[in-house]
Specification:
The complex is a heterodimer of chains A (about 250) and B (about 325). Chain A has about 250 residues and is of the alpha/beta class. Chain A is globular, with a radius of gyration of 21 Å. Chain A starts with a strand and ends in a 6-residue tail after the last helix. Chain B has about 325 residues and is of the alpha/beta class. Helices cover about 25% and strands about 30% of the residues of chain B. Chain B contains 8 helices and 16 strands. In chain B, helix 3 crosses helix 4 and helix 5 runs parallel beside helix 8. The termini of chain B are far apart. The chains are: A alpha/beta (about 250), B alpha/beta (about 325). At the A-B interface, helix 3, helix 4, strand 7, strand 8 and strand 9 of A face helix 3, helix 4, strand 5, strand 7 and strand 8 of B. One flavin-adenine dinucleotide sits at the interface of chains B and A.
């Protein structure tokens, strides 16, 4: 069974992203970039399925600029077998990414495609579901546990009310939530080995696709920041202020 | 132009998020229909028909819709979509699961987690854990939106409007439902509670959550929440996680105990009206957003707070 994992290069989640002083866009010039944390979880799951003898090959794919090869190398160092970069300098909205991934799936014929549940930069939470629609495959989003058995995959999903278990017939799409696993750190020897693993580059046009934008960003702004309040000295003072000043306690 | 709102419910009860989604839909147009899809959910349809501003309810019932699985639900919405210029759902786990599938089937780019509608084609949404707000214009002929429920006031109750039964879409069953593990709680729902009491890694154990934090929540009639660290450590179940990748809340009062205030956590609660932080580290970032900060050991402060409040009532 072949597994395809989609990985995205994003700003480090620990960095507070700001606007450029002139408001013309995001100030990402000095920001450290990493693999989207949910995608690390997706790669880890695929590699574990390979180690368990369930998957035969793990292919990682990213849609983005040249620099996204670094992200693919990280995935290869974690244990993926082969990388594919579909190069574009254009803005990659989930619908466009889903179309590219669907074309890649057409060529690669994986039995399972793993994605992150959301990218922590744009927080869209769409790509996996859109890809499932484009391919006409079943989907299991927000996975916290996954088990493959023959041509079926059973997934426990984190939902608002608790958790839901569903079973899908392969081929299928699964998007990873935080508690699916704890991704490994790539060891130095594996980072060296990853440099020799195959990494192919293609263009969207190779698949007969044009990456187009459907959303026009009209404005970017920083929301008003919340001013820090006061420090109270005691529980008694806290209760008093909540009652009289804030008016949130009767 | 008409708008279709997907009702959020568990077959027995209409979720408050629907009244908030209707409120967002009314910013687009005043002809708003609500789709109730499920099984044995006639009461839900009745409740939806009483939402102020709704002009019609569509009720679709069938076995395949009983558990809100994405594939049959998306097919149903797409089948009805011809009559609508916009389709709206709240950013609940169901909305987030099904709406992108609908959007892709319609070849439309979804606008996720909208917090304000400036005009029928201008939408504001947070990116980068809420540190930046993006205003986008859709170039698509149809709009598919998920809205952040806490950013819209729920509509009230109105006169009953008609309920029309619609057919389900027969189709292949690509996925099957196996089980639900519903977290049962007597406490108010996290996303609609007026007061939320949240605990972080500082709580130290599941036991402390129950014996130290829960009594405070119950004294206040509050919902319980948690940081990711507390959920990962197994102190509480995943449905209590507040944050960028958990639930977004905006109660009147949010009390954070033993939570440091990482940006991912702040993204889920910084629109609360009043924020209280109890943390023994005076430098914890949570104090930068707290209206009232108490530098103290939570194991002393929380029981004392509970005691003071309990004796006052
Ligand atoms: C520098 C920069 C500038 C931008 N400028 C604009 C702009 O001007 N206008 C605008 O509308 N948007 C802009 N964007 C955002 C734009 O890239 C998309 O909106 C965004 O990439 C898609 O949303 P998402 O990643 O949150 O998708 P999600 O649906 O949240 O992603 C879920 C999962 O899908 C997979 N995935 C997503 N994207 C890719 C990918 N490219 N390759 C492989 N797998 C992927 C991953 O597994 C990921 O975990 C910009 C982004 C960046 C980084
Ligand atoms: C992709 C991604 C998504 C994430 N999504 C979320 C999310 O949705 N929600 C979320 O919350 N986090 C999220 N996180 C995690 C986030 O970055 C933080 O790690 C997390 O919020 C920390 O939780 P915490 O504040 O409970 O723990 P810590 O940061 O460890 O803080 C514990 C605090 O408790 C205090 N404390 C300890 N003992 C006591 C005591 N006895 N009395 C008083 N105070 C005490 C300490 O001083 C400290 O400030 C995400 C991270 C990533 C990478």
């Amino acid at each position: 069974m072949k597994i395809l994992v989609a990985v995205k290069r994003v700003a480090d989640p620990n960095v507070k992203v700001r606007l450029r002083a002139d408001g013309s866009g995001l100030d990402l010039a000095a920001v450290k970039m990493t693999m989207n944390p949910f995608d690390e979880i997706a790669v880890e799951e695929a590699v574990r399925l390979k180690e368990a003898g369930i998957a035969s090959e793990v292919v990682v794919v990213s849609v983005g600029p040249d620099k996204a090869t670094e992200t693919l190398r990280t995935a290869l160092a974690m244990g993926a077998d082969r990388g594919l970069l579909v190069r574009t300098e254009a803005t990659t909205e989930p619908l466009a990414v889903a179309k590219v991934l669907s074309a890649v799936a057409g060529e690669e014929q994986p039995a399972l495609i793993l994605l992150g549940k959301q990218a922590i930069d744009d927080d869209c939470n769409q790509t996996g579901q859109m890809l499932a629609a484009k391919l006409g495959w079943p989907q299991a989003t927000f996975a916290s546990q996954l088990a493959v058995d023959g041509d079926r995959v059973t997934v426990i999903r984190e939902v608002d009310g608790g958790s839901q278990t569903i079973a899908l017939t392969l081929p299928a799409i699964v998007t990873a939530d935080l508690r699916l696993n704890e991704p490994r750190y790539a060891s130095l020897p594996n980072i060296m080995k990853a440099k020799k693993k195959p990494l192919e580059e293609r263009q969207a046009s190779d698949y007969g696709l044009v990456i187009e934008e459907r959303l026009e960003v009209v404005r970017l702004e920083e929301p008003p920041t919340r001013a820090a309040g006061i420090k109270v000295k005691s529980v008694a003072e806290l209760v008093e202020r909540l009652k009289t000043e804030a008016g949130v306690l009767a | 132009m008409s708008v279709l709102v997907l009702a959020e419910h568990g077959n027995a009860q209409l979720d408050e998020a629907t009244a908030r989604a209707v409120s967002a839909a009314l910013c687009l147009d005043n002809d708003v229909h609500v789709l109730v899809a499920g099984k044995g959910c006639h009461d839900v349809a009745l409740a939806a028909a009483h939402l102020d501003g709704v002009s019609k309810v569509l009720l679709a019932e069938g076995e395949s819709l009983a558990n809100q699985l994405a594939e049959p639900l998306a097919d149903l919405i797409v089948a009805r979509s011809g009559n609508y210029d916009a389709i709206v759902a709240a950013s609940t786990s169901t909305g987030k699961n099904v709406m992108p599938r609908v959007a892709a089937l319609l070849d439309v780019m979804q606008i996720s987690d909208v917090i304000a509608i400036d005009s029928p084609d201008l939408f504001r949404r947070p990116i980068y854990a809420g540190n930046i707000v993006q205003t986008v214009r859709s170039k698509d002929p149809k709009r598919v939106l998920t809205i952040r429920a806490s950013a819209f006031r729920p509509v009230g109750k109105g006169e009953a409007k008609p309920i029309e039964t619609v057919d389900i879409v027969p189709g292949s069953c690509l996925s099957t439902f196996v089980a639900n593990a519903v977290a049962v709680s007597e406490r108010p729902d996290l996303t609609s509670a007026r007061i939320v009491v949240s605990g972080g890694r500082g709580m130290g154990s599941a036991d402390n959550f129950e014996t130290v934090l829960a009594p405070l929540a119950d004294t206040l009639g509050a919902a319980l929440g948690a940081s990711r660290a507390a959920v990962d450590a197994g102190y509480v179940s995943n449905d209590l996680q507040v944050g960028q990748t958990g639930k977004i809340v905006a109660p009147d009062l949010y009390i954070a105990c033993g939570i440091s205030g990482a940006i991912q956590h702040l993204a889920g609660m910084k629109d609360s009206k009043v924020i209280v932080a109890i943390n023994r580290d005076a430098e914890a970032p949570i104090f930068q957003v707290a209206d009232y900060g108490l530098v103290a050991d939570l194991f002393e402060a929380v029981p004392e707070l509970k005691g003071t409040l309990a004796s006052a009532t």
